[in-house]
Amino acid sequence: MIAHFRRFLMTRRGALTGLALLGLATPALAQNFPSKPITLIVPFAAGGPSDVIARLLGEHMGRTLGQQVVVENIAGAGGTAGAKRLVSAEADGHTVLIHHLALAAAPALYSNLGYDTSTAFAPVGLVNTGPMVIAGKLALPPVDGKAFFPYAKQQAEKLTVAHAGVGSNAHLCAVLISQALGVKLAQVAYRGTGPAMNDLVGGQVDVLCDQSTTAVPQIQSDKIRAYAVTSPERLGVLPNVPTSREAGTEIDMTIWHGLYAPKGTPAAALDKLNGALQAALKDPAVLERFKAVGTSAFPTAEWTREAHGKRFAAEVAKWGAALKAAGLTPQNAN
């Protein structure tokens, strides 16, 4: 009996010791994280809008965290290839993903994602928000937005509209344009917005609905022509470009980026990443760069991980309903 009681005490003591050590793990991780360079996955080609924002953030966050942030471009399948790369990464905070609302739209567009969008990612924080810009090649006949939309409706399938793959922001915008005009446009898919923009500048495609972050510099350099922005108000950096409503065809689409870690990443690591992100968003130089390309940081009340999670869940529901109403059915991601 005594021997049994001693074994019980030893087992009990071992269990309590284990729990105590587990309780110390989180503070220790908070102190030691990050212990190596951080990989920031961009699920689109280099030179695109997500890449521009990622490199701006990565440089600043790296200084705050004391470790280099290495940008890794993994393009393909409308941004799902990069998302899969994150899902398979170790959940220790050293691999993060920057993505936009296409991540929320993916379940309505792809049947074989290989992960549950609603639970596979740990939100780190919201980054920036802004409109899309509907632009065309310089040789396109319409000279302004009011002339563009009737022209697009008349040309229908003859008008080539570029996008960065099914599920990309440019693709979702093209869907909204088609819905608004009541016609089917000829869509041309690329592996990223960067290559699509290059071909628009070169005149190989007619139209691209792109994020302001990469469209504005090309417009200001007179390499492409802007027809409308998808926000309720005009952009300060493009004061002469009308809203889609002003141009006669209302297309409402706001783009936003967020940072994500794999599910199961310790809260201590997520908090440090969120803190580094907030530090970047407080930097006047970063905000000025955002402003120059027609985007802005979220209000400070939405900088928390919890606010990011709520917005993401709402967008998954919103785009699921919108794409179903558009008649799009899930296809295989490749």
Describe this structure in words.
- This protein is 46% helix and 19% strand.
- The termini are far apart.
- The radius of gyration is 23 Å and the shape is globular.
- It is built from eleven helices and ten strands.
- Strand 5 (160-163), helix 6 and strand 6 form a beta-alpha-beta unit.
- The longest helix has 31 residues, at 2-32.
- Helix 1 (2-32) runs parallel beside helix 9 (267-282).
- It is α/β, with parallel strands linked by helices.
- Strands 1, 2, 3, 4, 5, 6, 7, 8, 9 and 10 form a ten-stranded mixed beta sheet that branches.
- The chain has helices at residues 2-32, 49-65, 80-87, 102-109, 145-155, 169-181, 193-202, 212-220, 267-282, 284-292, 305-325, and strands at residues 38-42, 69-73, 95-100, 121-137, 160-163, 186-189, 207-211, 224-229, 254-262, 296-297.
Tally of DSSP helical segments: 11
Overall helicity: 40-55%
Number of strands: 10
Radius of gyration: 23 Å
End-to-end distance, in Å? 65 Å
| Oligomeric form | single chain
> Any idea what the shape is?
globular
Secondary-structure element order, N to C: HEHEHEHEHEHEHEHEEHHEH
- Beta-strand content: 15-25%
State the major sheet: 10 strands, mixed
- Helix-and-strand structural type: alpha/beta
Mean pLDDT: 89
Regions with little confidence, pLDDT below 50 for 5+ residues: 14-25
